[in-house]
Amino acid sequence: MDIKNLATFIQAAEMNSFTKAAQKLGYSQSTVSFQIKQLEEELNVRLFERISHTVALTEEGHELLRYAHQITRLTQELKDHMREEKDVRGHVRLAMADSLCTSMVSSGFRDFREQYPGISLKIITAETEEMFRLLNHNEVDAILTLDSHIYDAEYVIVKEEKVCTHFTAKAGTPVSRKKGLRIQELIQEPFLLTEKNMSYRRLMDEKLAGMSLEIQPILETGSAELISRLVETGEGVSFLPDYVTAQKAAEGKLVYLDVPGFEVEVWKQLLYHRDKWISRQLGSVLEYFSEKGFGEEALMYSSGKDAAKCSEEFVTV
Q1: Across the strands, what pairs with 123?
Q2: Which of 135, 160, 248, 266 could form a disulfide with 253 if both were Cys (CB 3.0 to 4.6 A apart)?
Q3: Class for domain 90-156+270-293, per CATH?
Q4: Residue pLDDT, tens place only, 123-172
Q5: How many CB atoms lie within 10 A of CB 130?
Q6: What is the Cα–Cα distance from 282 to 192, expressed in whole angstroms?
Q7: Which residues is 119 bridged to in the sheet?
Q8: What is the pLDDT averaged over residues 20-36?
Q9: Which residues are 93's β-sheet partners?
């Protein structure tokens, strides 16, 4: 069996397109079609359903894809061993929420570069729906979501963690001194919020809608860090994850508002598609982000009660 044919099959399977596979590999479409046909004839099975101008894996195709990933991985390991190559090299594409990009990459990027100088990263910020579109079309290698908990056998969860969120305001303002705030009263305050339909903002809006309530913000922006700075200057109140506000809260600049009965469950999840081949460089990035960049810095600023409540972690291999 020709290894090149398997490599072509993997690209066509992950992209659901012979045309896109040909473009990525630098082949003509007829070459890709010929290599797939060779595999099908050699194995005496149909690997793809060809309907109109689309292709989709058959059950036999899904089975071959799992074997193809194993064969490709073993082939690469053999080449690395024979070359005695110690450095991990390559390009990895990640999609994540904008606020996670700031908190996870800025503080640890130098450490990552020192540990993996041969790996280059491309990070795309997107909302959850767009992340999964990119993942399903093999336009990114893995995603880091900030949303409701996702259960789907199509994806492998590398690591997940519950994230605390709070309404927050500048310390010393009248609203910051109130205890037992009713949500009906709080939404009358001037609000600064992330864009509508974005992760925790969407979950908050859904919770309010269930109570027949709605917030009309005075500012909407994709930057949680900017909102945090504006809240600190007293421009309004907001609803943000603790990893954005924890340090300012610990320094007494921001206050978490006491709003009994209003809780929103948000999860941070690092995932990849179950059919994705885990190269050495992708495996290294997944391991690094799950072990060193998964919220410990933010949690250390939380109170003991909140930290214990929000650090429920599970690892799936």
Answers
A1: 94
A2: 248
A3: alpha beta
A4: 998 889 999 999 998 899 999 998 999 989 999 999 999 999 999 999 99
A5: 13
A6: 37
A7: 90
A8: 89
A9: 122
Q: Strands 192-193 and 219-220: what pairing?
A: parallel
Q: How far apart are CA 138 and CA 206, in angstroms?
A: 30
Domain residues of the chain, as ranges? 3-83, 90-156+270-293
pLDDT value, residue 298:
38
Report pLDDT for 107. Answer: 64
Q: What is the dihedral of CA 142, 146, 149, 153, to 10 degrees?
A: -10
**Which single residue is written with the structure tokens 């609000």?**
191
Phi/psi at 168 (nearest 5 deg)? -140, 150
Three-state SS at 283: helix
Residues 6+ apart with CB under 8 A from 60: 43, 45, 46, 47
Tell me yes or no: is domain 3-83 CATH 1.10.10.10.
Answer: yes
Reply yes or no on whether the pLDDT at 300 is more than 50.
no
3-83 and 90-156+270-293 share one fold: no
**CA atoms of 160 and 163, how far apart (whole Å):** 10
Beta-ladder partners of 103: none
Which token pair is 52?
Answer: 């109109």
CA-to-CA dists, residue 121 to 67, 138, 158, 223, angstroms: 27, 15, 18, 21
Burial grade of 80 (CB within 10 A; 0-12, 13-18, 19 or more): middle
Separation of alpha carbons 26 and 29, rounded Å: 9
